[in-house]
Structures are given as structure tokens and as C-alpha cells.
Amino acid sequence: xxxxxxxxxxxxxxxxxxxxxxxxxxxxxxxxxxxxxxxxxxxxxxxxxxxxxxxxxxxxxxxxxxxxxxxxxxxxxxxxxxxxxxxxxxxxxxxxxxxxxxxxxxxxxxxxxxxxxxxxxxxxxxxxxxxxxxxxxxxxxxxxxxxxxxxxxxxxxxxxxxxxxxxxxxxxxxxxxxxxxxxxxxxxxxxxxxxxxxxxxxxxxxxxxxxxxxxxxxxxxxxxxxxxxxxxxxxxxxxxxxxxxxxxxxxxxxxxxxxxxxxxxxxxxxxxxxxxxxxxxxxxxxxxxxxxxxxxx
Length: 297
Ligand SMILES: [Zn+2]
Hints:
Blueprint: H1 5-33, H2 38-41, H3 49-66, H4 68-83, H5 92-100, H6 137-147, E1 151-155, E2 168-174, E3 178-185, E4 194-201, H7 216-231, H8 237-245, E5 272-276, E6 286-290
Antiparallel strand pairs: 1-2, 2-3, 3-4, 5-6
Helix pairs in contact: 1-3, 1-4
The structure holds zinc ion.
GO molecular function: transcription coactivator activity
Subcellular location: Nucleus
Family: Belongs to the Mediator complex subunit 27 family.
């Protein structure tokens, strides 16, 4: 122990300044914990003013932590903790706080695949069908067009060409209701047609299969079909056609949940087709119309 009161006072001053710079770093770090995880994940971190602000704060904090004064404080704290033989972790409150704190957004999170799909939104029964292959498409379309009011056509980039492209694009039309372009991939090794995307348009919209409808209803219809495909990425073309045909009454069908044609919010018709298995009221299962925002059970 030093006997010089002046030196003692200076040491106390130095320590309290170190503690206050560490406390400042800690409070700024806590603040940044509330920044959205997109700060680190987004490919466009500068896209919004609030992200820009968070990013700036993160940069400033990094500079502060690297500064001599904070590095000095951290070193002093580390050696002081090492020299201190008392068990700091025995402090109950500190332990509690440690346990209660939710995982911080900055910590690397376990990888969660995007593909977190639930069960297939297609009927289980359909799974028994041999899925349509590229070479069977023309015959399938011919038969489909003879037995359905909606129609299928092979779409090609070059007018008049009959060559099936790869990916193959098929146009599905319900007269005066909608046009959908169904894009399917296949290969020599795996000739099964796998639907990659379905894009819906208004019956009189003249747009390419790879663009987007100008109408909300067709945009949300495309989203809904994408959701279905995500639930069963290798669903057969035949199975996909069942809910597609069920869109015939999209502008007159009532949602079976809220019993309205147009949703109360957004005034969009029921774009969801939900499969209900046969029950005591019906001997066959059916596709029920629902709004995207209404309960899906
Ligand atoms: Zn509804």
C-alpha cells in the first residue's frame, strides 16, 4: 500500500476513468444488441436510413473499442480479475442475468435452412400417381384439353415452334379468369417434370412468362402457388393441375372462413385453395377457397 495520498488519489482517478470508459462501451454494446440482425445479414446494409444509422453506430463502437484508452481499461480489468481470488461467478444476481439474457442478434446464429416447410399442401392420395415426364407432356395436354374447360398449351419463345424447351413452359388458361405460365425443369437423367414456378396474369395482360402481373390479385395468386410448391417441391404436374383448375371461380367463390368473396382487408378474392379430405358430409375431398389472411385450418 502506498502511503502517498496524492498518488492514491491519482490512482483512484485513473481507475474511475477506466471504469467509466468500459461502462460507456458496455451501454453502447447493449444499444446495438437491439439493432436488427439484418445489419449483419442483409446484402444491402445501406438500404434504409435506420440501417445506415445502426451501421454507423457499429463502426463508431468498433473504433472506440480499438482506442488506446479502452484497450488500456480492458487490460487493467483482465489483470485485476486474474489477481482477484474471489469467485465472481458466485454472485447470484449476475448468474440470473446471464441466464435470462436472450441470444444476442450479433452472435452467429445456428444455420436454419430457408426450406422450413410444413407438410405438403397437396392431397396425400395424389402421391401415388407416376409423375408426368417430359416425353408424356404432349399426350397429357391433349387429353386434358378434351376433358377440362380450362386449357393447356406448350409455350415457346419462337412463334410456331413445337419443340419443347428446357425449362419447359406451359400456359394454363381459364377463359376470362386467368392465364398462368408454369415453368418446369427436366433432364435426360431425370425426365420427371419438376415445376419451378407458376406466374399468374390477368386474361388480357400481354406479358412474358417471366415478368409479373400488374394486378394485386394475380400477384398474390402467384405467391400462393409458390407456397404450395414449396410445401412439395417435386409435386407431379398432374397433382398441381387439381388446385389450378379449382381457381375457375376465384372471382365468385366465397372464402369458407369469413364467407366473403373479397377480403375485408385489401379487397382481394380468396387466392388460397386448401385441400379438405373427405368427411361425413362429402364422399370426396375438395379444394376450399380461403383468403390469404383468413385462418388456414
Ligand atoms: Zn376470408
